[in-house]
């Protein structure tokens, strides 16, 4: 692809932002926004987070939660992307167990409590960046992962994160679209989730996974953050 075409790719869709505002439990989407999903600060503008050192990188929260979805371990859990994931890049999923005695509606998820449970990352083959459409999550109206069967029962925050790389040619250019949902896991196991990380703290603004090169064209990519818990 010519450089001019790559630059055009970077420019197109620059304003096509999105938000994750509905949970999808075993294929059933919530009827309204901001039910189990905590309302985010982009509920009107759909803008992303660019500062990985800001507390906004945790849940981008505007309002505390009010409801908790009932989720059985081993099922598919997803988020609706309104209107769609309109930028290329990886999508990651994290979970954090609410400590005993804490209210899931107000617990903020601070500290080393988050573990990665799923990821939709770079194309499995082909030249990276040759087309936005080569990225598996691009233009999807929903994204999902499988809740580990061995995750212990309890209440959790589930965090979805889409890293848009179209303007990430320098540090701070990546746009991160994220939100957190409140769930209660049943039918789980006795796993020991990890490694545990914190938000902020898990990412550095200079992480290779938060940077993108249109020219020379990238031939490999790894999303930032810890390894996915193998459960």
From TrEMBL:
Against Pfam families, the record matches this protein to: AA9 (PF03443)
As cofactor, the record names: Cu(2+)
**Signal sequence, renumbered to the chain:** 1-16
Q: What does the UniProt keyword field contain? A: Carbohydrate metabolism, Cellulose degradation, Copper, Disulfide bond, Hydrolase, Metal-binding, Monooxygenase, Oxidoreductase, Polysaccharide degradation, Secreted, Signal
Does the keyword Disulfide bond belong to this entry?
A: yes
User: Where would I find the Auxiliary Activity family 9 catalytic domain in this sequence?
Assistant: 17-216
The terms describing its cellular component in GO are: extracellular region
- Its Enzyme Commission number? 1.14.99.56
GO BP, one annotated term: cellulose catabolic process
According to the UniProt record, what class of enzyme is this? oxidoreductase
Task: Kindly state which reaction or reactions the protein catalyses.
Answer: [(1->4)-beta-D-glucosyl]n+m + reduced acceptor + O2 = 4-dehydro-beta-D-glucosyl-[(1->4)-beta-D-glucosyl]n-1 + [(1->4)-beta-D-glucosyl]m + acceptor + H2O
Q: Where does the UniProt annotation locate this protein?
A: Secreted
Q: Which InterPro entries match?
A: AA9 (IPR049892), AA9_LPMO (IPR005103)
GO MF term list: hydrolase activity; metal ion binding; monooxygenase activity
By sequence similarity, the record places it as follows: Belongs to the polysaccharide monooxygenase AA9 family.
Name of the protein this chain belongs to: lytic cellulose monooxygenase (C4-dehydrogenating)
Q: What organism, scientifically named, is this protein from?
A: Podospora australis
Lineage start: Eukaryota, Fungi, Dikarya, Ascomycota, Pezizomycotina
